[in-house]
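Researcher: Here's the sequence for the chain we discussed earlier.
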Amino acid sequence: MKQRYGKVAVLMGGFSSEREVSLMSGAGVLAALQSQGVDAHKFDPAEKPLSALKDEGFDRAFLILHGPYGEDGTVQGALEVLGIPYTGCGVMASAIGMDKLRTKLVWKAMGLPVPDFVLLDENSDWAAVVAQLGLPIFVKPAHEGSSMGVIKVKSQDALLSAFEEARKYDKVVLAERYIGGGEYTAAVLDGEVLPAVKIEPATEFYDYDAKYFRDDTVYRCPCGLPAEVEAEVAEYVKKAFWAIGGASWARVDFLMDEDGKPYLLEVNTAPGMTSHSLFPMAARQIGMSYEDLVMRILDTTLPVEA
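Model: Thanks. This is the structure I predict for it:
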C-alpha cells in the first residue's frame, strides 16, 4: 500500500476563515489514511511553504483545505507547478466553484435552475432588491464557504447592515431569493452522484454552527424525495459538476421550492470530512465506510490505467 501511493501530504489548516473546520476534516482524513497503511503526514501551509512538499519528498497530496487559499485554485496551481498530484478539482474548477457569482452565471448559461440573485453595493436600491427578490432574502459573500458571513434578512431595513457585515468577508456580495421547500446536498465521487442528503437545521438556516458543532441538526439519507425527482436532480448535479470542469470529488448543494422544483445553490470542491460532514454520510448510504471513501478519493491522484 505504501509503495503504491508513496509519501502522502494531507494539506489542512491554511489561512482562511475555515481553518478550524479544515483541521478537523484533515485529522479525520489523516487517521483514515494511516489506518489503511498509507504513509500519510499532516502538512499545514500556514506553518511552512508549499515548496517544502518537494524538499520533504512527498509524492502526492490529499487536499482538505477549505475556503480561500485552499479551495479556490491557488494551492492547486502551486501543486501543479511543483508536479505533485492532488485530490479534488483542478485550478479552473476550484476557482469557479469558490466564486458563487461565476458559478451561478455558468449554470444559468447552461439553462440550469438557480435562485434569482442581485449583486449588492453601497449604492444599491434596497427597495428595488426587495421588489425583485421578495422577503426573506439571503445576503452572502461571493467567495466564502461554510456559510461564513451569510445572513437571512427579513426586512428591507436590515439589508444595509447585512450587506455591511457580508462585506467584512468579501468585496463581492450577493442577495439571493429565498427558496423554502427544503435544503439538500448531493455528493459527486469520480463522476458518480451519490444519494442526496436532506438537511433540517434547528437554527434559522444551515449556518456555521449547525454545520459543524450542533447536535440537533437532522440529516436524512435517503432524503425522502420521490425517486424520479432525485433522478432529475442527479442529472442537474452531473451537468453542474461538468460545467465548472469538476474532477475527483465535490458536493453540490441544492434547494427545493414548495412546488417541488429544484434549484442549484453552490458547489463545494473540497467538501468537509468531519464527523458532521455530508459527503461521508452519502457514502455510507451505498455501503462505503469513511476509510473506503478516503481511499477512493486518494485513488483519483493515481495515473489512469490504459
